């Protein structure tokens, strides 16, 4: 046996009481983890217009699933604790104990997975924001195109809220036409020259939208002709500290979301507490189950009994579980030869029954 301990009636009662308290602590941690997943999910949905990949939703999805599963499994564990010392009510839980341990173990595995995913998806998040922001800037001018008319407001609000400009920096706006053709005077020589000078016929500017302006700058906002030193008084494009946000929106959003996805602060603490609490609940409930079943086998609820984690060693238990699983899989498989033989035998029997006519006896009424 693995970790065999002796339990008398008093120790079993204390174990049940402590396990009940641990179970409800895990329920509260699970509720917090679920709320954390919902909050992260909502934050990702808020910026869905500037993201190009939905795989990053795996982290909040797992958090919500783990939170709900933790609430359910640990609530059941608390009920088992209440009924463990009652001979008439505890046996009804014995059927569900194996399934409970399987779900609780899977829950611990998912908790480890969500922490690893939060770090592994950093590159995916960065690439998703890179493509999404690039498309958002490219479609900034399409205010009259169905499905894209919201992009201008989204990008403007994003740049003002996160105090950023462009994808990597403000120069990204120099490479796209962000002014719609409906607002361009094509009778103007300057507009015609700019359009003709571009291979793709786009109207490019060395300027940025108003949302890139930094209100903390003492100088009035310079949005246009940013690379022309002669266009502004006392201005040097190379050395002047521009009154624009210097940080790109991709960097700003990555920093913001990674703080959430890494579950810093209370998030990491709650996941760690839930993992530790869940492992404690699993081990304590196993000791309680085996010790109570041992006392019931002795037909004396107050007798001293043995409690243990595994009836055999780890290797032997693994082999037993492996054999049981393989047996169940073999039993679930259908043998094609046996099925064909059965169909042939059924078909032959039907043919024989169809070819023979069973005589019908008629009885003549007695006179």
From TrEMBL:
> What are the GO cellular component annotations?
plasma membrane
- Coiled coil ranges (UniProt) are none
Key word Membrane present in the record?
yes
**Transmembrane intervals:** 21-39, 59-77, 98-121
Query: Could you tell me which residues belong to the region Disordered?
Result: 342-367
Q: Where in the cell is it found?
A: Membrane
| Superkingdom | Eukaryota
Signal sequence interval, chain numbering:
none
SUPFAM superfamilies tied to this protein? Tetraspanin (SSF48652)
The annotated regions of Low complexity compositional bias extend over 342-352
Q: Does the keyword Transmembrane apply?
A: yes
* Alphabetical keyword list: Membrane, Transmembrane, Transmembrane helix
Q: Which Pfam families match?
A: Tetraspanin
Q: Name one GO biological process term.
A: visual perception
UniProt xrefs under PROSITE patterns = RDS_ROM1
Q: How does it sit in the membrane?
A: Multi-pass membrane protein
* Family membership: Belongs to the PRPH2/ROM1 family.
Q: What is this protein called?
A: Peripherin-2-like
Lineage here is:
Eukaryota, Metazoa, Chordata, Craniata, Vertebrata
């Amino acid at each position: 046996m693995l970790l065999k301990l002796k339990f008398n009636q008093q120790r079993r009662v204390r174990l049940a009481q402590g396990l009940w308290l641990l179970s409800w602590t895990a329920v509260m941690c699970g509720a917090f983890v679920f709320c954390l997943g919902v909050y992260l999910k909502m934050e990702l949905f808020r910026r869905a217009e500037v993201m190009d990949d939905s795989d990053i939703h795996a982290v909040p999805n797992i958090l919500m699933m783990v939170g709900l599963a933790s609430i359910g499994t640990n609530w059941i564990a608390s009920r088992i604790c209440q009924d463990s010392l009652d001979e008439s009510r505890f046996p009804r839980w014995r059927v569900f104990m194996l399934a409970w341990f399987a779900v609780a173990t899977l829950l611990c595995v998912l908790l480890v997975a969500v922490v690893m995913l939060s770090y592994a998806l950093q590159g995916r998040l960065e690439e998703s924001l890179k493509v999404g922001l690039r498309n958002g800037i490219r479609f900034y001018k399409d205010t009259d195109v169905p499905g894209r008319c919201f992009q201008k407001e989204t990008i403007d609000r994003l740049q003002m809220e996160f105090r950023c400009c462009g994808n990597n920096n403000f120069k990204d706006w120099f490479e796209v036409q962000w002014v719609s053709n409906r607002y361009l005077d094509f009778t103007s020589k300057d507009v015609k020259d700019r359009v003709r000078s571009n291979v793709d016929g786009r109207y490019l500017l060395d300027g940025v939208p108003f949302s890139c302006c930094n209100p903390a700058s003492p100088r009035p906002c310079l949005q246009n002709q940013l690379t022309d030193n002669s266009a502004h008084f006392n201005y040097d494009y190379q050395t002047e500290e521009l009154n624009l946000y210097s940080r790109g929106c991709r960097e700003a959003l990555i920093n913001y979301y990674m703080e959430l996805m890494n579950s810093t602060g209370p998030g990491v603490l709650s996941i760690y507490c839930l993992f530790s609490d869940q492992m404690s609940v699993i081990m304590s409930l196993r000791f309680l189950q085996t010790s109570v079943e041992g006392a019931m086998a002795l037909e004396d609820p107050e007798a001293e009994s043995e409690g243990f984690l595994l009836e055999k060693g780890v290797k032997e238990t693994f082999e037993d579980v492996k054999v049981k699983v393989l047996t169940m899989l073999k039993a679930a498989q259908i043998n094609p030869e046996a099925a064909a033989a059965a169909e042939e035998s059924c078909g032959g029997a039907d043919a024989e029954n169809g070819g023979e006519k069973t005589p019908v006896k008629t009885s003549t009424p007695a006179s």
